[in-house]
Design goal:
Blueprint (H helix, E strand, L loop, with lengths): L20 H26 L5 H12 L2 H11 L3 H26 L1 H21 L9 H18 L22 H26 L5 H5 L54 E6 L6 E3 H5 L5 E8 L10 E10 H7 L8 E6 L4 E5 H6 L4 E6 L2 E2 L9 E3 L13 E7 L7 H4 L11 E6 L5 E2 L2 E10 L5 E8 L5 E2 L1 E2 L9 E9 L2 E11 L21 E7 L1
Parallel strand pairs: 1-10, 12-19
Antiparallel strand pairs: 1-2, 3-4, 4-7, 5-6, 5-10, 7-8, 7-9, 11-13, 13-17, 14-15, 14-18, 16-17, 18-19
Helix pairs in contact: 1-4, 1-6, 1-7, 2-4, 2-5, 4-5, 5-6, 6-7
């Protein structure tokens, strides 16, 4: 007789095809979205600059090596801040995916990952130049929301990978897809509502309408009228205009979000080595009898040879020297430590502030109040110096001190102390590797040597002799000059080179130098193709 033994209960095999790794990664991303949304909502109450993304971005700007900053400006130009924010968000997304995957295996480690990221946001917010303890609130709120969201999103995925339960169960290894979908939808909605609400709240800090309500005074010393034919851009396509419109003016600074200062709240404080320092409201400055208007070209020290980080505008303001002297600036001061609303410090040479005739506290640009991104309500301008030592935007404090006593932001990072602008020239047209019909065509561009002026511009085609270009009418020594040279191009490739000479006889050097630490130098050359 054969005895048949009962078959053992089947052991459920591990389902290797239904592991919830992708859903865990998505849970991390959704938790990060909720955290950032809540952070934006709280930042709407505290201030836009307290947002963790902005705070971390500001911290990165302050701490990355100068070579990285130079690469960012060289690669992205004025879009460097957009690139930084996008890069920060990508890092957050990658980190969130990692937290989700780790949290699937171990909830405590997942929560620890969220707490660690929150700590970074808190530290960045409170240690930035203008940081205060309330700036930590968005990061703290984001951390709490992120932990709650992560645990809620991981709950439907089970604690660990398990064996597949008995047939007929809808969950594999504790996975409840329907619950995850519902929780994920709630998280996505929460992120959208809080993030959108935060953006709406942050609009209350906008000062655009208040800026539009500022009435600029009539200058007691207006800029000279431009002579007929002053702008050669009207006759040469591709040539940079004599005056740069506000929307096209270059912007290089460290503020991810431009400070927003209400005109009625504005104060400019003078401190340090003054006999009788005082503070000024915007109304005080606008109401002064010595308002001046000047055409001035500004240049960024980060501008490469042939670069576009230069622009000309008609500025309106009050003489800087007059303000300094009426407060009794002391002879021992050789540095003005200028502080921006966002905490940035710029060290300007006191001598230049007193001796450069058109140095000013500017509140107008091309006939309107300063745009917010260019320093509204007040910025400093000292012609002849690169912006990093002269053009403090959103200016709120001037401390008369010495270079020995304190280093400003950029000097701490080993940039040159005084930063005089080097003579420069640029070819605007024809553009690099531009192909055009052979024959007569204008070679044109701009040249500048602020406070000295441009006397001559010469162009060389291939190995030919230098040929002198026609200059636009001289406006002021602080303003660049356009130049044009008609030339008969033969078919083929040609190398065009330009150099300028200042009114004091200095010929632009051929020797190449990078922007760091004292500004770029060298002749600008382009290769073009005549067909």
């Amino acid at each position: 007789m054969t005895t048949t033994l009962p078959a053992p209960d089947p052991v459920a095999p591990v389902d290797r095809h239904r592991r919830p790794w992708p859903l865990a990664a998505l849970a991390g991303l959704l938790a990060a979205a909720v955290a950032l949304g809540v952070a934006e909502l709280v930042a709407g109450l505290v201030g836009p600059a307290s947002s963790p993304v902005i705070a971390v971005g500001d911290a990165a700007i302050a701490r990355v090596p100068e070579s990285v900053k130079a690469f960012a400006i060289r690669t992205f130009g004025e879009d460097d801040k957009v690139a930084l924010v996008v890069g920060t968000l990508l890092v957050v997304a990658a980190y969130a995916v990692l937290v989700g995957l780790v949290g699937l295996r171990n909830r405590r480690l997942g929560v620890l990952g969220v707490l660690l990221f929150g700590a970074v946001g808190v530290l960045a917010a409170v240690t930035r130049p203008a940081g205060e303890w309330p700036d930590a609130l968005p990061s703290l709120a984001a951390t709490a929301a992120g932990v709650v969201a992560l645990l809620a999103l991981l709950a439907p995925l089970g604690d660990r990978l398990r064996t597949v339960p008995a047939a007929g169960d809808r969950a594999a290894g504790g996975l409840d897809r329907r619950r995850f979908v519902v929780t994920g939808a709630v998280a996505l909605g929460a992120a959208a509502v809080t993030g959108g609400g935060g953006r709406l709240l942050q609009r209350r800090t906008e000062v655009t309408s208040l800026r539009d309500g500022v009435r600029l005074p009539v200058p007691s010393s207006p800029a000279a009228a431009l002579p007929p034919g002053a702008d050669l851009a009207a006759e040469v396509d591709g040539l940079t205009p004599l005056v740069t419109r506000n929307g096209a003016f270059y912007r290089i600074d460290t503020a991810l979000i431009a400070p927003r200062i209400r005109p009625a709240d504005y104060r400019l404080e003078l401190a340090g080595m003054f006999d009788s320092p005082r503070s000024y409201t915007l109304a005080d400055l606008l109401g002064r009898p010595d308002v001046i208007e000047r055409d001035i070209t500004l240049t960024c020290v980060s501008n490469e040879v042939g670069g576009a980080l230069a622009g000309s505008a008609r500025w309106l303001g009050v003489p800087l020297a007059a303000v300094l002297r009426e407060n009794g600036i002391r002879p021992g001061s050789d540095q003005l430590l200028c502080r921006s609303e966002d905490g940035m410090t710029i060290g300007a040479p006191t001598r230049s502030a007193l001796e450069v005739e058109d140095a000013m506290l500017a509140f107008g640009m091309n006939g309107e109040p300063l745009p917010v991104v260019h320093g509204f309500p007040v910025r400093m301008i000292i012609p002849g110096l690169y912006g990093y030592v002269s053009a403090c935007k959103w200016l709120t404090r001037i401390e008369a001190t010495t270079f020995d006593a304190v280093d400003a932001f950029w000097i701490e990072r080993d940039w040159a102390v005084e930063g005089p602008i080097k003579i420069a020239s640029r070819i605007d047209t024809p553009e690099m590797l531009r192909e055009f019909p052979a024959g007569r065509r204008a070679i044109a561009g701009v040249a500048w040597a602020q406070t000295r002026g441009i006397a001559r511009v010469e162009v060389r085609v291939d190995d030919e002799d230098w040929a002198e270009a026609r200059l636009s009418p001289a406006i002021d020594a602080d303003v660049w000059r356009q130049w044009v040279l008609p030339y008969d191009f033969s078919p083929g490739r040609h190398v065009l080179t330009v150099r300028a000479t200042s009114t004091d006889g200095e010929v632009q050097t051929e020797q190449r130098a990078s922007p760091f630490p004292a500004g770029s130098s060298g002749w600008h050359s382009v290769e073009v193709i005549a067909g």
